[in-house]
Amino acid sequence: MEAKSDLQLRLVRQVLELIVDGTLKLGDPLREVELSSQFGVSRSPVRAALSQLAGLGAAARGGSRGMQVALDSGSARTTLENLPLEDEDQIREQIAKDWFEGRVPREISEKSFRLRYNLGKMTLTRVLTALSDEGIISRMPGYGWQFEPTLNTLESNDASYDFRLLIEPGAILQPSFVFDAAGAAAIRARHNRILSDEEHNLAELFRLDEEFHLFIAGCSRNGFVVQAVAQQNRLRRLLEYASLIDTGRLNSSCQEHVEILDALHAGDRTYAANIMRKHLEAAKAAPPSFTVGR
């Protein structure tokens, strides 16, 4: 069974994310029944999460209306950034880091996982399932697991960008490509908000980068392109776990993303593809500072 504190913290995080992205706004009601249905949990943990949100100043009682949102988007983002990680998030991050830095073998049994990280069977199952969903690990026959190839060397990082250079600019030029103007407007708004902030949050920049590239892939209406870009996004998450992503480069990427969106909005897909090519070449030319596995 999931740890009570972990579940409550996860719900707190999910509500704050809804406030940050504008789904919930200052003064909106926070109803237990609606939230429990939305998150697929009972009302009891939602009630406890709302109590925690009130303690954080993110929720407050609004008279007969019950609990309501008490923070604007910017304040909610600051609160979200200061939340502690859930226990299982910390375990998953540690396992990913250990693989990235070569501290665990590629093939490892569930028993070895339990002993190394002091985990119960149910907790380990959830952690391994989450890592599998991220493309970091896959199940072998029996009770074994194997880590997937990752971007932990300069050579693998370059090969990843070479692959993306073959796929992503070309996707924009596909006959099936249809520019989603409404989706682009929402992504652009998030880019503009981040670019206007004096301080940048690494996780938020990283997620926005993932979202942008997956959005462009989706516009291609080609399922294989979407699958390829999603897999590359998953591989890059290990770089975030290992704190090797350059915040400055991601900030420049945001500006380049906006240029690509502008070109697509103007109907110039050839120019957009050229910017995408230069965007990926610039990222390849500014690799993380790999220090392990050489």
Give the arrangement of secondary structure elements.
Blueprint: H1 4-20, H2 32-39, H3 43-55, E1 59-61, E2 67-69, H4 73-81, H5 87-100, E3 107-109, H6 110-117, H7 121-133, E4 137-139, E5 144-147, H8 154-172, H9 181-196, H10 202-219, H11 223-241, H12 247-265, H13 269-284
Antiparallel strand pairs: 1-2, 3-5, 4-5
GO molecular function, one term: DNA-binding transcription factor activity
Keywords: DNA-binding, Transcription, Transcription regulation
InterPro entries: GntR_C (IPR011711), TF_FadR/GntR_C (IPR008920), Tscrpt_reg_HTH_GntR (IPR000524), WH-like_DNA-bd_sf (IPR036388), WH_DNA-bd_sf (IPR036390)
What is the molecular shape? globular
In angstroms, what separates the terminal alpha carbons? 41 Å
Strand order of the largest sheet: 3-5-4
Which regions contain 5 or more consecutive residues with pLDDT less than 50?
A: none
Order of helices and strands: HHHEEHHEHHEEHHHHHH
Number of strands: 5
What summary fits the major beta sheet? 3 strands, antiparallel
- Strand residue content: 5-15%
In the CATH hierarchy, the architecture of the largest domain is Up-down Bundle
Query: So what's the CATH class of the largest domain?
Result: Mainly Alpha
Over the alpha carbons, how many angstroms does the gyration radius reach?
Answer: 21 Å
| Total helical segments | 13
Q: Would you tell me the structural class of the helices and strands?
A: mainly alpha
Under CATH, the topology of the largest domain is which? Four Helix Bundle (Hemerythrin (Met), subunit A)
* Number of domain units: 3
GO molecular function: DNA binding; DNA-binding transcription factor activity
InterPro entries: GntR_C, TF_FadR/GntR_C, Tscrpt_reg_HTH_GntR, WH-like_DNA-bd_sf, WH_DNA-bd_sf
Organism: Pseudotabrizicola algicola
Keywords: DNA-binding, Transcription, Transcription regulation
